[in-house]
Amino acid sequence: MKIAIYPGTFDPITYGHIDIIERAGEIFDKVIVMVAQNPGKQPLFSNSERVMMIKKVVSKYKNVEVDSYDGLLVEFAKRKKATAIVRGLRAISDFEYEFQMALMNRKLEDNITTVFLMPHEKYTYLNSSLVREIARLGGDVTEFIPPVVRQILSKKIKSLRK
Ligand code: ADP
């Protein structure tokens, strides 16, 4: 059984992430979406909120699981018996950072290969921080995130204003 980990911050999950999950689900027997504690980012949503939102939107894919982990990615992958890490590549601007991470993860664990998938081009400009910013300023994010995520995001923004 070929298992892949799709790690990320997912703050919140967007249609771009979902596009990558769908593609990975067609290639691998099982995809585990791993919500990471990225020390370089201050997420809007807690780990459990991000896991809950992802679970809601991926429940229709039978071979996709969701988990969170704040340790080393390759350790999580080994523990889950995964042989691949999936990352999305939107543009050249993603490349340098992703290249470095992929090579470092390979250095740490030679048996785990990073695989890059390209989303549909309509998602190449999409990222979670833009979605958060647009929503915070009252803009329409219908095209970028599923309805259930939109509801939770708008509640979160309202609660922060109180
Ligand atoms: P991280 O903080 O690890 O970059 P993100 O949640 O921003 O976490 O992204 C997780 C993964 O999903 C990364 O590989 C990123 O390139 C990819 N990704 C993010 N947005 C998109 C998108 N719109 N289309 C395709 N891949 C995306």
Provide the descriptors you would attach to this structure in a database record.
globular, 162 residues, alpha/beta, binds adenosine-5'-diphosphate, Rossmann fold
* General form: globular
Query: What is the spatial order of strands in the main beta sheet?
Result: 3-2-1-4-5
Give helix and strand order, one letter per element, not per position: EHEHEHEHEHH
**Unreliable stretches:** none
Helix/strand class: alpha/beta
| Major β-sheet profile | 5 strands, parallel
Radius of gyration: 15 Å
Number of domains: 1
Estimate what percentage of residues fall within beta strands.
15-25%
- N- to C-terminal distance: 49 Å
Name given to the CATH homologous superfamily: HUPs
- Provide the list of bound ligands, each named once: adenosine-5'-diphosphate
Can you describe what's shown?
Helices cover 45% and strands 18% of the residues. The protein has helices spanning 15-27, 47-58, 73-79, 92-108, 128-136, 147-161; strands spanning 3-8, 30-36, 64-69, 84-88, 113-117. It has a 5-stranded parallel sheet with strand order 3-2-1-4-5, with helices on both faces. The model has no long low-confidence stretch (mean pLDDT 96). The chain starts with a strand and ends with a helix. It contains 6 helices and 5 strands. Strand 2, helix 2 (47-58) and strand 3 (64-69) form a beta-alpha-beta unit. It has 162 residues and is α/β, with parallel strands linked by helices. It is globular and about 50 Å long. The chain has one domain (3-125): HUPs (Rossmann fold), CATH 3.40.50. It binds adenosine-5'-diphosphate.
